[in-house]
Amino acid sequence: MRPQIVLFGDSITEQSFRSGGWGSSLANTYSRKADVLVRGYGGYNTRWALFLLTHIFPLNSTKPPAATTIFFGANDAALLGRNSERQHVPVEEYRENLKKMVLHLKECSPAMLVVLITPPPVDEEGRKEYAKSLYGEKAMQFPERTNEMAGVYARQCVELAKDLGIRAIDLWSKMQGTDGWQKKFLSDGLHLTPEGNAVVHEEVVRVFSEAWLSAADMPYDLPHHSEIDGKNPEKAFLQKCL
Amino acid sequence: MRPQIVLFGDSITEQSFRSGGWGSSLANTYSRKADVLVRGYGGYNTRWALFLLTHIFPLNSTKPPAATTIFFGANDAALLGRNSERQHVPVEEYRENLKKMVLHLKECSPAMLVVLITPPPVDEEGRKEYAKSLYGEKAMQFPERTNEMAGVYARQCVELAKDLGIRAIDLWSKMQGTDGWQKKFLSDGLHLTPEGNAVVHEEVVRVFSEAWLSAADMPYDLPHHSEIDGKNPEKAFLQKCL
Predict the structure, then answer these.
(1) Is the pLDDT of residue A199 over 80?
(2) What family is this (chains A, B) (predicted)?
C-alpha cells in the first residue's frame, strides 16, 4: 500500500528509534505516506552484513523498498590490534562490500533509491571517557577507533557513491563542520545524541527530497479527514477503498 | 521475516512517532524482533475507519499482523451540536463498529492478538485553552468534548472487549488514577504529552507481554554480533541465511 523505506546499518541504525532517534523522526516525516522499517544490527561490519543481504532484500520480492539507506563503517574502521579488532574490515574490502550491497539492491529493484551514509566522526576523548566509565583503570590506553581512520572509510564511501552514480551523505565531514561536534553530536564518542540524530534525519530528508522521495510531494495513503463529507462519507473512499 | 505489529487508530496513533511517542517507543522495545507499522488517521471516527478496514487488513494477506491495537473513540465521542459534531458517532454504533473491526481482524488471522484501547480522558479546561489559542475570543463557549462522554465510550469499549474475550486497555481510567493527569498526560486536553505517551507505551507492552508477545521472550531476527566468530563468520549465519 505505502512505499517502504528501509534503514540498513549497524547500531547507529538499530538505535534510531530511541527517543529523538533519526529513524522515528523519519517515520514521522513520512507519516501516512511511507513506512519506515529498521534493519539495524549493532556491532555488525559490512562483511557480516553481507550474509543478511538476500535474507532482508530477497531478489524475488513483489514489493521491494522504494528507498534504502546503507549506513556502515563505524565497526569496519575499528583498528587492528585493539579492543574491537574482531570487527575490523580492511578499507578496500569495506568499499567492495558496500558495492555488493548497492548492486544487490539495484538488482532487487532498479528504481530503488539507494543512499550511502558514511560513518560519523569519532571523538577519541569521548571514547576514552566511555571506556573508563565501563572498565575503570582497566580501560585500554589506546583507542579502538580514531577519527582519522573513520575519515579514510568515509572517503571511500563517498567516492564509491560517485563511481556508482548514487547519492551519499558524508556524515563524517558534515558533523565536523559544527563547532563542538564531539559532545554536541556524539554521546560516547561514536553513537548519536538527539542533536546528532537530528543531523542524520535532516540529511536523509534532504537527500530523499533532492531525489524523488519528498514527503511534501507524496500523497496521503488514504483520505484526509477534512475531505470526508460527514453525511456521505463513502464518497471520499470510492476511489481507493470501495 | 519479523512479525508485524500494526497500530490502527486516530490522531493519537498517527502522532505516535513524534519525539517520545508511544509508537516509536514500541518500535524500540521490539527492536530486531518485530516491525511496528502506524496506521493512524487523524480526525477519523470508527464509522470512517471502517471504510479503510479491508484496504489496510486484506483478508487474503499471506502475512497478516501478529498483533493490532485498535485505538478510536476520541472523535466518536465529540458532542452533537458543537464544533466537532461532524465526527460524532453514537455510542451504540461506536461499539458495533469496534466489534466489526475485531471480527474482521480475527477473520484475517484467528491467531492475531487484538487489543482495544479506550479514548484517553478529556481535560475540558485544556481544550478550552487550546481553542482560545487558536480562535481567541471567537472560541466556542461550550466544549466540543467532555470527559464524562469520553468515559461513556471508554466503558463500552472495555465491555465489548470482555464480551469478545479479548484484551483492552482502559486508558480513560488508568490516566485519571494519577494526580494532575490533566496537564501531566494531555498537551491540549486531548492529545498526549511525552508522559502520556509513556503511559500508553507501558500499557501496550504490559498487555502484549501478558498475552504471548513479550519482547524479552522473542528471539532476535538475526544473530547478535557477539555470536559471530570473527574468523568463521559464516557459521553464525548457517541456519537463517545460508
Answers:
(1) yes
(2) Belongs to the 'GDSL' lipolytic enzyme family.
Question: What distance in Å separates the CA atoms of residue B181 and residue B122, rounded to the nearest whole number?
Answer: 10
Backbone CA torsion sign across A30, A33, A39, A45? negative
Nearest to B51 by CA among B92, B117, B100, B84: B100
Of A123-137, A147-161, A224-238, give the lowest mean pLDDT range. Answer: A123-137
CB B177 within 8 A of CB B187: no
Q: Give me the DSSP letters along A47-68.
A: HHHGGGHHHHS-TT-SS--SEE
Tell me: the pLDDT tens digits for B62-81?
999 999 999 999 999 999 88
Residue numbers in B near A32 (CB within 8 A)? 14, 40-41
Provide the pLDDT confidence category of residue A142 given band limits of 50, 70 and 90: confident
DSSP secondary structure, A88-118, as one string: ---HHHHHHHHHHHHHHHHHH-TT-EEEEEP
Work out the pLDDT band at A155, boundaries 50, 70, 90.
very high
Measured between beta carbons, the chain B residues lying within 8 angstroms of A40 are 31-32
Residue A64 binned pLDDT confidence (cut-offs 50, 70, 90): very high
Beta-carbon contacts of A15 under 8 Å, excluding residues fewer than 6 positions away, are A21, A40, A42, A191, A192
| Residues in A touching B222 (Cβ below 8 Å) | 41, 52, 55
What does the alpha-carbon distance between residue A103 and residue A114 come to, in Å, rounded to a whole number? Answer: 10
Q: Which three cell numbers stand for residue B177?
A: 488514577
CB-based contact A31 B17, cutoff 8 Å: yes
**What ranges do the domains of chain B cover?**
4-241
CB proximity A47 to B under 8 Å: yes
Question: Out of 3.40.50.2300, 3.40.50.1110, 3.90.550.10, 3.20.20.80, which CATH number does the structure's domain B4-241 have?
Answer: 3.40.50.1110
**Cβ of A107: how many Cβ atoms within 10 Å?**
12
Min distance A162 CA to chain B CA atoms (Å): 30
ipTM over 0.90: yes
CB A115 within 8 A of CB A204: yes
Q: Which residues pair with B35 in a beta bridge?
A: B4
Say if CB A56 and CB A8 are below 8 A apart: yes
Instruction: Work out the end-to-end distance of chain A between its first and last CA atoms, rounded to an integer number of angstroms.
Output: 15
Contact B102, B166 (CB under 8 A): yes
